[in-house]
Write a structure and sequence with these properties.
Two copies of one chain form a homodimer. Chain A is an alpha/beta fold. Chain A is built from 24 helices and seven strands. Chain A has two domains: 488 residues, Amino acid/polyamine transporter I (Up-down Bundle); 180 residues, Rossmann fold (3-Layer(aba) Sandwich). In chain A, strand 3, helix 19 and strand 4 form a beta-alpha-beta unit. Chains A, B: One of its GO terms (cellular component) is membrane.
Chain lengths: 695, 695
């Protein structure tokens, strides 16, 4: 899966079959997003219809059928896309390669928004199902949702390697249990013992509704039902993760996923209708329902109708649904940084996101995604219906543009064939190819038409219900991406190589900044001397008269091999006087390169980072503005860095027992112990020889 | 003022009299905190008494008198402190020098808490007075408070230099207008035309109250009234800002401040009592008051009683009160970073806070203070009464410990005199000195006793009302400070200099990391060559085959003077392969010093920082863990850095017109223009000579 590619598993490069995914593991990983959406799609569909009154539920089967048809078309369209672009770029790659920069950027923006909403919607729905099983948790709906997002982020930050197997079990439990529920429910209906939902008793106030409003209502319900399609495109992003033959396996998995989704969706909707689930957007609209209680989700109502309230299967289904929804949210945490990496590679995002194999990059991306998702959940109060309004837009934008890109792809192929000389064109293979192209063109044209229509419908019906936010976010993100792209391109022009520029200099000076005479300074001095600069000397900023006299005395006492210059600092600043001194030096001695040596502390605990290096970093930043300066950082590993890096800079008794000269392989008993303070005074003779050379 | 010292005003070092503060400017700056507390102290005092019923207001004059006595004693005590410790360290210095580390740290923690609460209480009271004048703003009380904190932070970040004069006017307006109000009110009372407050008509439910509870109530009211003392110590922190004679002027200012505070406090309280201000903690307890409206502050009630509702003087007083309170909050934004700097100097806080003259340090401190204050305001919903409960604790902790420290100071002096030989002891000067010491001892003993008693009272009466939070915060902060101190001390031991450690090496190698052949890389190559290392070569990490072939071709084409080595990276990481290569090199060639050259981009816009340098920084961090490595950063100033630094690294046509070789003094018309892209190809002959040498 994409995550395995991201984790840079060392075995990835050997590409052995054991670490690619067999179909039975690939299905749960890729399908969790698509299958989990059956948890909320029927609910949202019925909810919209119910706003017109109970009579409108009659439209439900037709709308569900339309959703199924759309699902079939989309699945078939993506089978074509997988075959044509097996590298795993998905809609983004298709759009960029076939339609150009701007459509590609729009798709990327839509996908980024989509990832955020996948997390928000999935977690909100998961929490909804949990609360449906344990209604006492209702006051903490938002807190639970935020907590789950944090949990997912933490788990991802730790990097679960065996995630593929962890995915498989809950997903199969979900498919199995919901499937069994549907079968049992159908049997009960067939035997005349139809299940009855808990909300069947509640009526709804019927509103007077015009004919135009009826059509609008049906379309709105259809739009909400289309949330069942979210997640279908996931397979197209992960073709490379399949075992060979990759394309065929991916296509098969996609088909299986589509089939299972259709079965679950239709089954759930059917049983919900027969058992009389009445689900309202505002539970207080249900006449007879005590709306201080939370309204149980459709899945909860169906499972309790089929199996009985608070029965074991009921809790199993609720738990499996919740877990599958959390897994769906989890897929976004892999997709988001992966997309960021691809965008960075193409220059549309900061280059920092492109370093594959670096766990830190993805940590940043995951944290950002988590924070935005938490923000969205808080603002929308984990209200599933409101979030769904935003969700579908981004999905159908990338569907539609992807399909249009595929149309371009096929027509280009057809045109190329048309340019061939006639004799080639009539060969068997070319005609077979042309047939394949035309078939692909037909399928994707159908897909593009349908998804574009749905996009228009969804936009019109949901714009005022919150979708305008997405229509604001996507252009803003696209604008930023194009801006970043232009910026990097301009910088490339700026730093373009030419043969005219040389950076020669008329000298080379090294200065070591000295505050107190301590070991890290001595190390810096020795490194500076090793480099054999034209001139090397130490520099101390005179901030306090006592300190200055002390350092001068120390310098003489330890017979340091280079001179120490004192720079006055009347205003008690550090960087200013040094910068001034460097400028004056270069005026007098011509344009030398001045290398400033600074010790840099490496530490073992995160909080130590707050206590070291900051002043040196500020001085370095200001000095780098001076013409001719370069900064050399000489690392000093404090004892604590042993904890995570396994070595330190200080030599302690016991180090010389280590085999290699200069390698401080410390016996394990010394680690995590108290820091050993060397007594002042001459060392024992056995130590002096070993400690005198330290590379 | 301390702020001027912090801003490192260039004229500070000349110490000329014009930039120290005359008393008439020092008073408003130092007194704003102390004087502004008269805005809420009488209110809080009456509020507590009223919980027992209207009859308890009879205690008010006695309690006010006790507060005045305490104020007098505290002012006199601080006069002594100023004289003994004119360097401006205040209570912290006194505690640390006389009582030791732990009391000093406790005082510092109390002061830090105090600063946060100064901001919160002052802003909450200011907003309260604004809402008293404009009751329509009541629903946005918390938002207004948060907004004002943000405003103060922003103003401080921009660094108002002429702040002293900005302080003076509103403070004098406040003193003047409130003074006039008191005088007018007293005249009205004297002429039998006493003002009547708007809340005089509202009664309060009287509770049955035991005698013990009466005493407790009186003490609680006294504790709240002591909030009038907050801010008195400010002068002791800024003695150095006064003109000469500094100590005398500071003492005089302190006395003036105390006198004005006493007059305003007693006058306000008197008129409030006579006019029948009834102020309740929960406005709904006022019988007859419509508590959907906000309860006007005491200041507002008195001023509207004296001058008439919504009259011009009423709005002037409310405005002046609000501004003075905001100025009081502002003083915390100078004190907090200054205290942080002092603590860092002593090793109790990260050293990064100790760089005086560096605006950035104080920016961080100000932002932290602002965020914490905003958090406190949100949690306490800008409720003044609740915040006051916390406020007084911290103030009286530092009062008390400071006074005890002064006792130690005097007794030490007395003991030293006692150790002198008898003939010296009886000289005039020594006897005069002894008298002064005894006088100081008496005054501070009295002060210590009284403030300690108040501390006990305040603790007992307010503990359950929220003060326990402060008793949690102060130990936690103290614990952290002691921990930091111990840590730095341990590190000092670790890196202590000794003569046995040498860091010689058997070679010196420079490697330049090359991604693409661009100008910053060429600059790094030239700087490396200038340093004349034993060996110098370039290194490219082979992440993509195309890129590798391209760079090798480019390297040959431009005839680069050093060899280019390609390092394989099968997992597409950067730092790992280089680290491995360095280790192998050192194994084969002995323990060389390996200097890694990395270009570092300097940019003009803050957002550009997100787009550069990150990958290089990560590589550097990982490489510094390898034994024998040091990192050299070679700066490249992108064109945008001209906007803030006035120079860039790239040479453009027009630069050679500049006088100095190597100084890119660009004509002003070129700045902020579009980036000039140099066309490929040989330059015009007039340019080539100048551009060939660039230091």
């Amino acid at each position: 899966m994409a995550k395995r590619l991201i984790l840079g598993d060392p075995l990835a490069s050997t590409d052995s079959d054991e670490h690619l995914l067999p179909k039975k593991l690939a299905l749960p990983i890729f399908a969790s997003d698509a299958l989990s959406s059956v948890a909320y799609a029927p609910q949202e569909l019925l909810l919209i219809l119910m706003t017109g009154g109970l009579a409108f539920l009659a439209f439900a089967p037709w709308i569900a059928a339309a959703v199924v048809v759309l699902l079939v078309v989309v699945v078939i369209s993506y089978r074509q896309l997988i075959k044509a672009y097996p590298s795993g770029g998905g809609d983004y790659e298709v759009a960029r390669k076939n339609l150009g920069e701007i459509p590609g950027v729009i798709v990327a923006s839509a996908l980024l928004v989509d990832y955020v909403l996948t997390v928000a919607v999935s977690v909100a729905s998961g929490v909804d199902n949990i609360i449906s099983a344990l209604p006492g948790l209702n006051p903490w709906r938002v807190e639970l949702a935020v907590g789950f997002v944090i949990l997912i982020v933490v788990i991802n930050l730790r990097g679960v390697r065996e995630a593929s197997r962890a995915f498989a079990i809950p997903t199969y439990v979900f498919i199995g249990s919901v499937g069994v529920m549907i079968v049992v429910g159908l049997i009960e209906i067939a035997t005349g013992n139809a299940p009855v939902a808990s909300s069947a008793q509640y009526a709804v106030e019927t509103q007077d509704i015009t004919q135009a409003a009826v059509i609008l209502l049906v379309l709105r319900a259809f739009s909400s039902g289309c949330s069942a399609l979210t997640g279908v495109e996931a397979v197209s992003n992960g073709v490379q993760a399949f075992r060979r033959p990759k394309v065929k396996n991916a296509q098969t998995t996609l088909a299986m996923m589509g089939g299972i989704a259709i079965l679950l969706f239709t089954g759930l909707t059917a049983i919900a209708l027969v058992s009389g689930v009445h689900y309202a957007e505002n539970p207080c609209d249900l006449i007879g329902f005590d709306c201080s209680n939370p309204q149980p989700s459709l899945m909860a109502q169906v499972s309790s109708a089929v199996f009985g309230m608070n029965s074991i299967p009921f809790f199993i289904i609720q738990a499996a649904t919740a877990v599958v929804l959390l897994l769906a949210a989890n897929t976004a945490f892999n997709g988001f940084p992966l997309l960021g990496s691809v965008l960075a590679r193409d220059g549309y995002a900061p280059k920092a996101l492109n370093t594959r194999g670096d766990r830190l990059v993805y940590s940043n991306g995951m944290i950002i995604l988590g924070l935005i998702a938490i923000g969205v959940l808080i603002v929308y109060q984990a209200n599933l219906t409101n979030l769904i309004q935003l969700y579908i837009i981004g999905v159908f934008v990338s569907f539609t543009i992807g399909q249009i890109g595929m149309i371009r792809h096929w027509t280009r192929g057809i045109r190329e064939i048309g340019r061939l000389p006639t004799d080639q064109r009539s060969s068997q293979s070319v005609r077979g190819e042309l047939f394949g192209l035309r078939k692909g063109l037909f399928i994707n044209s159908l897909g593009a038409t349908m998804t574009a229509s749905v996009l228009v419908i969804v936009t019109i019906t949901k714009f005022t219900h919150g979708a305008w936010l997405v229509f604001l976010a996507i252009p803003i993100l696209s604008f930023l991406m194009v801006g970043v792209h232009r910026y990097y391109r301009d910088v490339e022009h700026e730093i373009e190589m030419d043969d005219q520029t040389h950076f020669g200099s008329s000298g080379d000076v090294a200065i070591i900044l000295v505050n107190k005479l301590q070991k890290p300074v001595v190390k810096a001095v020795d490194y500076a001397l090793a480099a054999k600069h034209d001139k090397t000397f130490a520099v101390h900023i005179a901030v306090s008269k006592d300190d200055t006299e002390a350092i001068e005395a120390e310098w003489r006492r330890h017979r340091m091999p280079i001179p120490l210059k004192i720079i006055e600092s009347p205003y008690r600043t550090y960087a200013g006087p040094i910068a001034e001194w460097v400028r004056k030096y270069r005026e007098e001695h011509g344009s030398s390169v001045v290398t400033v040596y600074l010790p840099q502390y490496i530490v073992g605990h995160w909080w130590e980072g707050l206590l070291h290096n900051r002043r040196a970093r500020r001085i370095a930043q200001q000095l780098m503005l001076v013409h001719g300066v370069s900064i050399t950082l000489v690392p000093w590993l404090l004892d604590s860095s042993e904890l995570i890096y396994g070595r330190r800079s200080r030599v302690l008794p016991g180090d010389e027992r280590a085999g290699r000269a200069g390698q401080h392989a410390v016996p394990a008993v010394e680690r995590r112990g108290r820091r050993v303070v060397r007594p002042a005074g001459p060392p024992a003779p056995s130590e002096s020889a070993e400690v005198s050379r330290q590379g």
